[in-house]
Amino acid sequence: MFGYESLQKDFDRLIEGGNLSHTYLFYGEPQIGKFLFARELAAKIAHPSDILTVDFSAEEGSDKESVGIEKVRELEHFLYQTPSSAKATEGKPSYRIAIIRDAQWLTDQAQNALLKILEEPPKSGIILATATDSDIFLPAVRSRFQLVFMPILPREEVLDFLDQYDIMQDRKLEIADTARGRVGRARTFAEAQNGQGSALHTATKLAKQAIRASSTTNKKNVSDEIIEFFNEHPHNTELFIESLAGMLDPKKHASVLKELSEFAYNLQTVTIQKRIHIKKLLWTIQ
């Protein structure tokens, strides 16, 4: 595992003593490594065939109430099956583990469906959920989770995490600075660096220019460059969004980042209307 050594040791003791709870909610800022931690914790406890990941990130902004309920039912069906392979040592139980990724997107209806499982969890079942905030859950649901807050990591720990990637030291330092303690974001940049180094470099450069541009002329030139980058590399626009997100105050520029993220996620072609909208957003960054 990476980082969070104290938390790792706490869970190692719980595993060794057979004192694991049936439900944990790992919460904290986006891309700090909550899902990575939950996934590797699950791998310590159960066989891969006894681990299910239910990802709700794709449901962001969805109006389909039934989708979340269907996924919760899938989770329920999985948990109530007998573990197919015992990973634990003699005298310790085997488990089936369901990881709920980005649980903040569960609708109230889906949360109520989940509550029925939380009230009477199967003996061999464990739920590891991740979310950006614990307070977005219904009180009855929140109260049934063991809450685990995951803070932003020190820069040194992010650099330690990046040692597993074959990239130059100066790029590691730049990635660590841009990631701002979020190891999930650092991984995105590192993997992009391995396969798309020039695109990542361009995205990072443009993000810096967008922030530093002060005059009207500079803003226009930078906006034009960014639009051109989006046109030429539509599949790499996320790199620009991630770079920009790592450099801006997330509270001060929350609305701008949200709109840019939604734009990048849905990007197929850059129309004239989209050009105008992006430029307006970028001009608000100061």
From TrEMBL:
InterPro entries: DNA_Rep/Repair_Clamp_Loader, P-loop_NTPase
GO BP, one annotated term: DNA-templated DNA replication
PANTHER family per record: DNA POLYMERASE III SUBUNIT DELTA, REPLICATION FACTOR C / DNA POLYMERASE III GAMMA-TAU SUBUNIT
UniProt-recorded name of the protein: AAA+ ATPase domain-containing protein
Species of origin: Candidatus Wolfebacteria bacterium RIFCSPHIGHO2_01_FULL_48_22
